[in-house]
């Protein structure tokens, strides 16, 4: 029996930078020189895991300014520059609302500190009463670390086989599957089709409930 549905955020509930050129556009907006953009991207890939488990962007601002010439004054400016480029995935929002009628739902997401608050402020989350929010920056552990999935089970009070996880990153899904979770790999190259597929799987898993 299915008792809980977790949704990833970026590339699932919202259209983020996945499979787009938005990252390149952001670097241009920040005026990172073209010849430095590969280096900057590699640096960001290195520091992102630290952000996901709660390290503040504030400590990174001197690197932004002094090494790459990015004109940002506060941590909130960096968060805003990301959030301003996110878009709603309305197709999945309707799925969330439908599932919520009969099921507990939650977020399980890797997130920078304070970013989720910013996202809520600008209306980028479906207006449902989330039963659990598992935010890596608060938990101090990130996907695909098994500990965050274990924590999600503890918070919901259900076992892995009673959870459906809708996520776009394969390695995160593999950890969830290893704990017995039902999973759906969301394809952010086709939000409409993948949202429909997520609903179809949910209905299949609950048809005998």
Q: Termini, distance in Å?
A: 6 Å
Report the total helices.
10
Secondary structure: number of strands: 7
Secondary-structure element order, N to C? EEHHHHEHEHEHHEHEH
- Structural class, by secondary structure, is alpha/beta
Q: Could you list the spans in which at least 5 consecutive residues all have pLDDT below 50?
A: none
Our Rg estimate from Cα atoms comes to 18 Å
Structural commentary:
With 209 residues, the chain is of the alpha/beta class. It is 46% helix and 13% strand. It is built from ten helices and seven strands. Helix 5 packs parallel to helix 10 (191-206). The longest helix is centred in the N-terminal third of the chain and has 16 residues, at 37-52. It starts with a strand and ends with a helix. The mean pLDDT is 95.
Provide the fold topology.
Elements lengths: L3 E4 L6 E2 L6 H8 L7 H16 L8 H6 L8 H9 L3 E2 L1 H11 L3 E6 L5 H7 L10 E4 H4 L6 H11 L6 E5 L2 H9 L3 E4 L5 H16 L3
Parallel strand pairs: 1-4, 1-6, 4-5, 6-7
Antiparallel strand pairs: 2-3
Short description:
By secondary structure, this protein is of the alpha/beta class. Helices cover 46% and strands 13% of the residues.
Which descriptors apply to this entry?
single chain; alpha/beta; two-stranded antiparallel ribbon; five-stranded parallel sheet; 46% helix
